[in-house]
Amino acid sequence: MEEKSVSIGLFDLLLPGRQFIVHHKVAEVGQVSLTTEFLLRLLYSVDGLEEEQIAQFFGFNATEMSFAVNEAEARDFVERQDGCVWLSDAGYALFKDSDRPQIFEVLKRSEKAGFDLLSMAPCERDNLSDFERALPELDIVDAGRVGMASQEVPDAFRRHYRDFVGRKDRDVAAGVRRSLYSIDEVIPADRFSSVVPVLAVANVLKPGEPAAVLEAWRNGHELEDRGSVVHSVATFIDNLKTVRQTEDERAYRLLLEIAPDYLKEYRTRDGLSVNRFFKETASRAGELRADRRTVGIVGPLYSPENIERIRNALEYSSDPGSDGRAGDPVWVVPGSPVWGASRALLTLLDSVAQACYPGSVASKTAIAVLRDRSQKHLRKAFNQVVIRSDDGEIPSSLEILLVPHRVVAVVVNAPIGLGRGFPVPLGVLSFEQEVVRRAHEFLEGKLRTRTLDSGEQIDWHALLLWEESSQQEPATGPARPGSPETT
Questions:
Q1: Hey, what's the torsion of the CAs at 88, 90, 93, 94, to 10 degrees?
Q2: Of the candidates 360, 412, 372, which has an alpha carbon nearest to the alpha carbon of residue 254?
Q3: pLDDT-derived band of residue 407, with 50, 70 and 90 as boundaries?
Q4: How many domains does the chain have?
Q5: Which of 175, 209, 239 is the C-terminal boundary of a domain?
Q6: Where is this region: Disordered (predicted)?
Q7: Residue 72's pLDDT band (boundaries 50, 70, 90)?
Q8: 9 lies in which domain range?
Q9: Which long-range contacts (CB under 8 A, 24 or more apart) does 34-39 make?
Q10: Are 15 and 230 a contacting pair, CB within 8 Å?
Q11: What is the pTM for the complete model shown?
């Protein structure tokens, strides 16, 4: 059996960097007149010629001969001795790498160079949004190295000189040969951050041990110079690992209760067969159709694949006879402090907003129901934020995205299998009315009256009330999740 890989995490992480003003000199290949060049080439072939012999060779008169020799002598390329003209040591040095004389001029330059503070490799400064500035930052393992960064800049600038100059030097692009001659002074400038996109990919047989993929940031040979960044990303992923909690089991039971028909083949005496559900879902990712209203999903809801599935679900669930307005979406966010730490979250929010409010420029309309105030980046992503009661009624690993009366995604973010592992997002996406109804009723029973950060109060009852008469499908099926009949 071929071992399949699956994406189970998506992050944008801040890489700390700093700009340095590097005062340096460059040696640039210059040019002399064609007359002087041919004189030097003649003397390189046959040194120690009389001036009359040179004049006869080129057909020069006395004035032309004097001008040619004087120009070369003024630049110390030739010297006169015993009535003859000879190449000087500097003249011979011009032929070191070619049979043509290479004239070098030393020029002063100043470059503002950005380096990341983990590996001291080139790093460009990004113009970050408020959301991006609130993203998690990669840890600097060697803090002492940061304080001594200026001392490392000369070596780093030499190693990557072509990277800095080649990107913007028109002369180099035009073929002018230039090399770094010396570094005279390094002045620390502004600190900044850039974004490193990270994809966590796991083998289906080992979902708790994902590897960090950085292809969206740098390719293979560029990563060789950024080993400290790679190590810090791997540490970040490893630190997200946890162990299964009792409330994770409750979250899986709620998943079973909300989508019982779809998950019936994975139901066991003890609850949901998580391992089998994960392996089959990862191996045969389902696509929504008019006659397939519920599918299993793996990975963050804001992964590219799941964003497309949610778009399809919203399209299938739209009512041509209405304006598409069914109340603001509700997103119950799991407790992980780094959940949603990806710019792809904003992409999904915009997609949902456009589906709920066609033609509107409004975005970030969903109501985020957070466990606490530690997820600072989410307060920048959502403009409607509420902190839910810390009463354990909603398991910390449970995630629900509900577009009222239309679409629901229910996902559990927990390790799969025994022992410590990465919390794998696993659940269902549905526009089936019975599944959506159960999600409505579960949230209506669990969410208490809360005040938004803006000061407005949310009337959960009005937002989540399920009106049977307005639905086309009969409201049949198991009792409401979380009710006395099912707990």
A1: -100
A2: 412
A3: very high
A4: 3
A5: 239
A6: 468-487
A7: confident
A8: 5-24+105-239
A9: 35/64, 35/67, 35/68, 35/71, 36/68, 36/71, 36/72, 36/77, 37/100, 37/101, 39/68, 39/69, 39/72, 39/78
A10: no
A11: 0.80
